[in-house]
Amino acid sequence: MNILHYSDVFSTRSAGAMVTAKSSEILTIKEVADFLKVTERTIYRLAAAKQIPAFKVGGSWRFSQTDIAEWIKQQAVDDRTTQKTPGTKKREKRSE
User: Fold this and answer.
1) CA-CA distance, 18 to 20, in Å (whole number)?
2) The predicted structure's pLDDT at residue 12
3) CA 95 to chain centre
4) How far apart are alpha carbons 85 and 50 in whole angstroms?
5) Alpha helices (H) along the chain
6) Angstrom distance (rounded) from CA 8 to CA 11
7) Beta bridge partners of 56
8) What are phi and psi of 4, to 5 degrees?
9) Residue 49 has what DSSP assignment?
10) Average model confidence (pLDDT) for the chain?
């Protein structure tokens, strides 16, 4: 079974030649959306809400490949630590 590493998946076209993300550390909204298999709108919302590491250049969102890779790893860690134990319910706050 072949397993692709996310750094092998990102790519951009430059002067008709394929350039891998290893040589292109900055990603666009479209590249991040394609990789995460979500809409560009979702990435815009995450970036604007500061829920995904991003920065703006001339009004356009950009993403560091390294930061996105770390963010993905952190999401997996967060998911494992917040999973409920089977048979338990999350406590709701009571308003008095």
Assistant:
1) 7
2) 46
3) 36
4) 29
5) 6-9, 29-36, 40-48, 65-82
6) 8
7) 61
8) -90, 135
9) T
10) 77
Amino acid at 12: T
DSSP 88: -
What does the block give as tokens for 14?
Answer: 């430059």
Q: Is 53 exposed, middle or buried (0-12, 13-18, 19+ CB in 10 A)?
A: middle
Instruction: Please state, in angstroms and as integers, the Cα–Cα distance from residue 59 to each residue in 16, 17, 33, 48, 50, following that order.
Output: 26, 27, 18, 12, 15
Question: Which distant-in-sequence residues (6+ apart) come within 8 Å of 54 by Cβ?
Answer: 46, 47, 61, 62, 63
Which of 16-20, 72-76, 89-93 is modeled with the greatest confidence? 72-76
